[in-house]
Design goal:
The complex is a heterodimer of chains A (about 425) and B (about 160). Helices cover about 75% and strands about 0% of the residues of chain A. Chain A has helices spanning about 1-20, 25-35, 45-50, 55-75, 75-90, 95-110, 115-130, 135-150, 160-165, 170-175, 180-195, 210, 225-240, 245, 250-265, 270, 280-295, 300-310, 315-330, 335-350, 355-370, 380-390, 395-425. The longest helix of chain A is centred in the C-terminal third of the chain and has 29 residues, at about 395-425. Chain B is of the alpha/beta class and about 160 residues long. The chains are: A mainly alpha (about 425), B alpha/beta (about 160).
Chain lengths: ~425, ~160
């Protein structure tokens, strides 16, 4: 009976999150509170259980990276790089788009996607304004590129952080398994941009002077802070790469980096906490408690057993279904609760002998599925909001028209990658 | 002192007034804003100087003010040209109800005027005569109000 009640609470909260009838934080916390009232979760389970409680590694890794981003944002380095890159193209539209796509993808691999598009979008509008180019294709391309780029690393997208923590995968595991396919996907995506946005690439030589007049050096507000931030960021990246050898969790690396930046920058708390999304962190906590309750009552274990039995030794089929299903669902609902729910299920299958390729199928599907629709990923929603405020509205279907093509092509490439790397030659 | 006593004659514009003329009048005479009236002389809204700037400055620069440094001073001419062939109506955020406007009746006390100004974050309050169909009889600027409320500076006393 208790299992039925737990599942009912979970489904109800999930529906509320997906439909956004109430704020997702309120939905997740209400669901978590219901699990406590049902007697499934207590303080020990919620706060101290590694398997069924709040995953503090995820929470503090996100918090640390948000603080790092807050400090980096103060330096003006993102604006500098974007303007510098646009000027290198001498105003050629397609080359400019390629530059912005690459910058967005690389930045998204190191920072969270929403922050990346929030930083790149204003510069994009500025450059398009200078060149009299329509900004909408550029903004859509950047949202899609951020979702692709964020897939490359452990820290690039919250679902990856959840998967890494729950599966015990390292930063290097992600870099070795996902970064290569992400590089391929970016190349494919640039080719798609050439075709999809071809009408936007009208070159006006007379407008180039307006672009070249921009002075990127002026946007660096605090050079000493930039230097100190760069040193700490490099140290943090080295820490991520070496975290398994150093026996230190990625969350500790991020927190140490954040602490160092706070100490060195001497910024005030409102400044170094500016990018910390407290609602997102609380949402994660509520989510972990809800999913933990499913594990506690044995629902996840039984479901995992059924799935394992159904799939048998058809590992390729399992990966393909997980990839396609994750991509489809992530295009419709938030990929964070989806991945939080799926990780214990996939763990059951991996424990039963399935290849770790399932983790990569889950990450690739969930991270990139968000490209399919305008509401599939937070970066998409943010870009649409920025475009609307700038007087360049992007409709749901306008975004989805491009996003669905990109999602479909990239799913095909991912499917091929999984087959070749883990089954044909694995 | 009532708003009637504090009010000074203040020029009004209509939503169809040329935007450049309105902005230049505001700048040239150091007015913090303009009263925008309907054709019947009743207040339509207040156009503060900040609203003109909001129209001139692209949203991407408002979102990321550091980009203004990359544009440089020479871009200001280009930005100001956005006012050409525009009307005051284009500068206004949205039509407002009379209750939402920084407007006071002629009988309002100086503290009532201060409260409206503070609540609406407006540097300018229009004064209307309720007994004359809410027609504008003048305006009170924040400078005028503070001058009345504050004790005289020791150097001036």
């Amino acid at each position: 009976m208790i299992e039925v009640l737990v599942v009912a609470v979970f489904v109800a909260a999930y529906v509320l999150i997906a439909t956004e009838r109430i704020h997702r934080v309120a939905a997740a916390l209400s669901g978590a509170a219901a699990m406590v009232l049902l007697g499934v979760v207590d303080a020990r389970v919620a706060f101290f259980s590694e398997k069924t409680g709040v995953d503090w590694n995820v929470i503090f890794l996100l918090l640390g990276m948000m603080v790092i981003v807050s400090v980096l944002k103060q330096t003006g380095v993102f604006e500098y790089v974007a303007i510098w890159a646009a000027k290198r193209t001498r105003g050629r539209p397609f080359a400019t788009m390629v530059m912005f796509v690459v910058i967005t993808a690389v930045a998204s691999a190191l920072l969270d996607n929403v922050t990346t598009v929030l930083l790149i979008a204003p510069v994009t509008l500025l450059v398009c304004d200078r060149l009299s180019l329509p900004p909408v294709p550029f903004l859509i391309a950047e949202a899609l590129a951020s979702n692709i780029g964020g897939t490359a690393t452990l820290i690039g997208d919250p679902p990856n952080i959840i998967i890494a923590s729950r599966a015990g995968l390292t930063f290097n595991d992600f870099a070795a398994n996902l970064a290569p396919i992400v590089i391929v996907l970016i190349v494919v995506f640039i080719g798609l941009c050439r075709v999809l946005f071809r009408s936007a690439f009208t070159y006006d030589p007379e407008r180039v002077a307006a672009l070249m007049a921009l002075d990127e050096r002026e946007v660096i507000k605090d050079r000493p802070l930039l230097l100190r931030s760069a040193i700490v960021l490099v140290a943090v990246m080295i820490g991520f790469v070496a975290h398994s050898a150093l026996h230190i969790e990625p969350s500790m690396v991020a927190l140490l980096g954040a602490g160092a930046l706070v100490a060195l920058s001497r910024l005030d708390p409102p400044e170094f906490l500016e990018e910390v999304e407290w609602p997102t962190l609380v949402f994660f906590m509520g989510l972990f408690i809800m999913v933990g309750a499913l594990v506690e009552v044995g629902v996840i274990g039984r479901l995992g057993g059924l799935l394992t039995a159904a799939v048998g030794d058809r590992y390729l089929l399992a990966s393909s279904v997980l990839l396609g299903g994750s991509a489809l669902l992530s295009g419709i609902v938030d990929n964070i609760p989806y991945v939080a729910t799926m990780t214990p299920l996939v763990q059951t299958m991996v424990d039963a002998g399935h290849a770790t390729a399932l983790w990569w199928a889950l990450a690739l599907g969930a991270d990139l599925g968000g490209n399919a629709t305008a509401v599939g990923a937070s970066a998409n929603v943010v870009v649409i909001g920025i475009a609307a405020r700038a007087g360049h509205p992007i409709t749901f279907w306008q975004f989805t028209k491009y996003g669905s093509v990109v999602a479909a092509v990239t799913i095909a490439v991912r499917r091929l990658y999984l087959f070749l790397r883990y089954y044909a030659f694995g | 002192m009532t708003a009637r006593n504090l009010a000074q004659p203040f020029p009004v514009v209509t939503p169809d007034t040329d935007a450049m003329d309105a902005a230049q009048a505001m700048a040239g005479r150091h007015w913090p804003g303009l009263i925008v009236c309907n054709d019947d002389g009743r207040p339509y809204t207040i156009l503060p100087g900040s609203e003109v700037l909001r129209f001139l400055i692209p949203t991407y620069v408002q979102d990321d003010p550091v980009l203004a440094r990359a544009l440089g001073e020479e871009a200001s001419d280009e930005l100001c040209r956005k006012l050409v062939h525009r009307t005051v109506r284009d500068l206004l955020a949205k039509p407002q109800d009379l209750d939402d406007l920084p407007v006071v009746d002629a009988d309002a006390t100086s503290l009532e005027v201060a409260a409206v100004m503070a609540h609406m974050h407006s540097p300018l309050v229009a004064v209307v005569d309720e007994h004359d169909g809410n027609r504008v009889i003048g305006a009170i600027t924040v400078n005028r109000l503070l001058d009345h409320l504050l004790p005289p500076h020791p150097a001036q006393a």
